[in-house]
Every structure is written in structure tokens, then in C-alpha cells.
Amino acid sequence: MIQLAIDLAFVLEKAILIGGIISVSLLVAMYSTWAERKVAGFMQDRLGPNRAGPFGLFQPLADGLKLFMKEEIIPNASNKFLFILGPGLAMMTAMMTSAVIPWGKQIEIFGRTVDLQIADINIGILYIFAVLSMGVYGIMIGGWASNNKFSLLAALRGASQMISYELAMGLSIIALLMLTGSLSLKTIVELQSASGGWWNIAYQPLGFLIFIVCAFAECNRTPFDLPEAENELNFGYHQEYSSMKLGFYLFAEYINMFMSSVLMATLYFGGYDIPFVNDASLIESMGMNLVAVLQGLSLFLKAAFFIFVFMWVRWTIPRFRYDQLMHLGWKVMIPLALFNMLITAIVVLIRENGWPF
Amino acid sequence: MQMLTNRSKAVDRHPMTVWEKMYLPAIAKGMSITLSHFFKKKPTINFPEETRPFSPVFRGLHILNRDEEGRENCTACGLCAVACPAEAITMEAAERKEGEEHLYREEKYAAKYEINMLRCIFCGLCEEACPKDAIYLSETFAPSNYKREGFIYGKNDLLIPDPKKEPELYQKAVGERARKK
């Protein structure tokens, strides 16, 4: 028998971290639904939900309770196993992204230094893209297993959209990786938060623009929410779903939104770096744990801002037509990302080798 | 061609310029508009907690009036029923008996007085027709009900509280409008 050289404290530490991060992201997703309705209301000169509890804060609980109480319908003609697997897969892939994101630097508990990151793998970004492309399966399986032609068409629509935009997203990230020279998210954040280091948005404004547009498309948010166009395209891949299985699909969208907001903050806006302050000197004066809390807060504020942008865009811009969507994805975003990559490559080459001519 | 009004606009179908094709300026413009609405004051009135102020000439639920001694004013003359364009008012008259002088002001009174609030159009013609100042329209509206029968208001729904026995309720029921007279 092989003895694994992992002590119990390490397993416990990671388990607590995973539990904490999952519950925090579920909570954030829950209150994103509330915030979405509040933002929608405010932008349309309404008040939004304000009946359940103070400022309507219990609204997500009421919504969740309602979804749980609803009758659960599994269509006779559906493939029951895949039908149930679909929303589970969507939810799981949405949560899995959080594993490689650094939520803060380090904390010290019981004499142990704990990294606030579940797994610092050196292929962090690759992992995220792998998980993201798994997200397509949630949609495809759900749509196919419903045994409904509208669901299937919507699933195909959603899958082709996600795959098209993943391409441009990957290309925009490559330019960033050429600058940082690392796939590990922790290294990327540390490069940005080092003294004298700028946030990547300063080097990669075009890359960020492409990334945010693709993130909208990946999360199926307006203006790219064709997979679930409720009012004009006969709902979407979750047409046959009811009760909490439908809730899972909708909930997974909000978790995805939170995760991509965190990812944008991590890649382009310094991650957990506290702006205008030298974090290293702050650790000396305030202690490691307090700074870690501040760093987590800073990351959350950045993510909250991006979540707000997601909602802000949703209540401003109307939906694209499907041919326009594909046109934008293949004929605009990908050439633009390639151009951005080329420029970045030239700059990096010149910076490393000097002006050779 | 002569235009009837100057409001018609020709549809602009020119091909998009490069600036317009970039989308982003237009998107930024749209987002600035929605953001400005985000901070605007909301016109919402939170109904049960706040109510919309009624206009001074608002015509709401009917009230059957009493005089200062608490006697019913109505003599069941039927002028209100005749005046009513929606035919919402029905009544049955009765003669005042000996010893009922403290209840009814005149010798004749309405034993039954019903208004169908589903028929009523709240025009206020009954109030104008009444020679005895016995009926007037108050500042409240009919509350919702599950059954049609609930909207046929009888005398015990319509009569104002006795000013001698329940002066506070009476004052509340009289409201602003009657006080002005």
C-alpha cells in the first residue's frame, strides 16, 4: 500500500476552504438574482423587489422556496438519466472554476500559513478553459435529453455560440499570457500587485474588451442570450425543465457570471491587489490576516462591479440576431484578438531583444 | 409634395460609417442613459404604506348621513334612485312609529337602502338630487371582495356612525369634504 504523504491538517484546510468558497459563491449567486431585479427596477425607474424583508432582501429565499415547492415534471419521452444530469453538470462546471482562483494572499491560523487558493496549479488558465468548455455539455445534454425539438435547437444554438466565443476568448488570453509568461493565476496576480507593477488592463485594453464581450457570450447574458431568449425564441434548452432543475440552470448562469467577474478582476484588474497601496508594506504594518481579509474584500468589490456591469449591459442593450452574433464572433472578435496577439507579440519581442534593426 | 404637418421624418438608410460600425460609442451612450435613470427619483408610491392624495373633488363610497342628534336624514323619497344613471340604488320606505323619533328625523324613513357598488359609476348625482342632505360621497373607495354579493351595500354598511354614541368614528367618517361645507 502506498502511503500518501499528505497530513490530515492539509486535507482539513482544503476542505474548509472548498466549503467556504462554494458557500460564498452560492450566496453571491443568490443575491445576484436579487441585485439583478433591483438593478432592472432602478434602471426602469421602478423600485424592484422591496416586499420580502428590508429592501426585499429575503426575495431570493422566497424565490428558492417557490422553485422547490413547484411540481417536478420529467417528460415521458425524455432520457431520464441525462435529463437529471444536465442541470447537475451545469451547476458543477459553474462551481469548478473557483478552484484555481486566488481569493487572497495568505492567512496564518494555528501556526500554519494557509494559501487562500484551493489549488495553485501551474496551468490555471488552461484548467479554467477546460471547465468552461465542459459547461457546453450541461446545455447540450439538457437540450437533447428533453426530447423536444425546440430544446434541441436551442441547445445547438447555445453550444455553437459558446464554442465560437471561446475561441476569441482564448486568443485574447494568449496575448495576456505572452506578457506574464505564466499560466498560473497566482503568478499573474502577484506580477500585477508587485510594487511598480501595473494592472494588466493598462497593457491589454483591447484584450480586456474582447475578453469581456466573450464573457458575456459565454455566460449567455444579454446581448448574447439567444440560448434562452424567453420572449422570442420559445425559451431555450431548459424549456422542458421545471422546479429546482430549472432553478439550477438559472442559478448556474449567475454563478458563471460571478466566476467570470472574478476572473476578469483577477486577470486584468490586479485580482486581490488592494489599489493604491503597497500590499507588502501593509502586511508588515497590519499583520497577515487582516490584510488577507482586505484583499478578499478588494477582490469582491471588483467582482461586484463587474457583476453590476453585466446587469447594466443587460438592461441597456437589446439582443443580437443570430447571424449578427456569429458575424461578430467569427469575423470581428477573432481577427481583432489575432491582431491584438500580433501587436503584443511584437512588443514583447522588442522588449526582450531590443530594437534589432 | 405639401406636408400636412412638419412631424414626418424620412427614414435614414445611409450605410453605417466606421464610427457607427464600431458599436461601442453607441453602447456607451446607451449605458450612460440607463445609468442616469439608475439615480433618478422613482415615482413609485408604495401603496399600502403610502397612498396617493385624493383630489378635493374625489367621489368615493357613499355615506348615509345623520343629523347632530344622531337621527337618520333619509326620508326614502327616492329622488336619488331616480337620479341615478346606473340604477344602482334601491330602497323600501317605512313609516316612523311612535317612540322612534330619536332614530329618524322625518315621519318616513328608509327601511331598506341598498347601493350596488358594481353598478355605481360614482357620478355623485344622488348627492346632488338629495333634498335632505342624507347621502354624500366620501373619500374612500370600495374595498375588494371575493363575491358579487359583497358589493351590494346595505344600510349598516352605508350609515355614518352615530355622532353621539361614537363621536370619534363619526368625525373620521365625515372626512375633510363634509367639514368644508
From TrEMBL, chain A:
Transmembrane region(s): 15-34, 81-104, 124-146, 167-185, 197-217, 248-270, 290-312, 332-350
Q: Which Pfam families match?
A: NADHdh (PF00146)
Question: Does the UniProt entry include the keyword Membrane?
Answer: yes
- Where does this protein reside within or beyond the cell? Cell membrane; Membrane
Recorded E.C. number(s)? 7.1.1.-
Reactions performed catalytically: a quinone + NADH + 5 H(+)(in) = a quinol + NAD(+) + 4 H(+)(out)
Its record classes its membrane topology as: Multi-pass membrane protein
| PROSITE patterns attached to this UniProt entry | COMPLEX1_ND1_1 (PS00667), COMPLEX1_ND1_2 (PS00668)
Q: Which InterPro entries match?
A: NADH_UbQ_OxRdtase_su1/FPO (IPR001694), NADH_UbQ_OxRdtase_su1_CS (IPR018086)
For this UniProt record, the keywords arranged alphabetically read as follows: Cell membrane, Membrane, NAD, Oxidoreductase, Quinone, Translocase, Transmembrane, Transmembrane helix, Ubiquinone
- Major site of localization recorded for this protein: membrane
Q: Which GO terms describe its molecular function?
A: oxidoreductase activity
- Kindly indicate whether the keyword Cell membrane belongs to this entry: yes
Reading the lineage from the top rank, the first entry is Bacteria
Free-text function comment from the UniProt entry: NDH-1 shuttles electrons from NADH, via FMN and iron-sulfur (Fe-S) centers, to quinones in the respiratory chain. The immediate electron acceptor for the enzyme in this species is believed to be ubiquinone. Couples the redox reaction to proton translocation (for every two electrons transferred, four hydrogen ions are translocated across the cytoplasmic membrane), and thus conserves the redox energy in a proton gradient. This subunit may bind ubiquinone.
Q: Which PANTHER family match?
A: NADH DEHYDROGENASE SUBUNIT 1, NADH-UBIQUINONE OXIDOREDUCTASE CHAIN 1
Q: Which HAMAP family did the record assign? A: NDH1_NuoH (MF_01350)
For this chain, the family text in UniProt reads: Belongs to the complex I subunit 1 family.
Q: How does it assemble?
A: NDH-1 is composed of 14 different subunits. Subunits NuoA, H, J, K, L, M, N constitute the membrane sector of the complex.
Name under which the protein is recorded: NADH-quinone oxidoreductase subunit H
User: Which source organism?
Assistant: Flavihumibacter fluminis
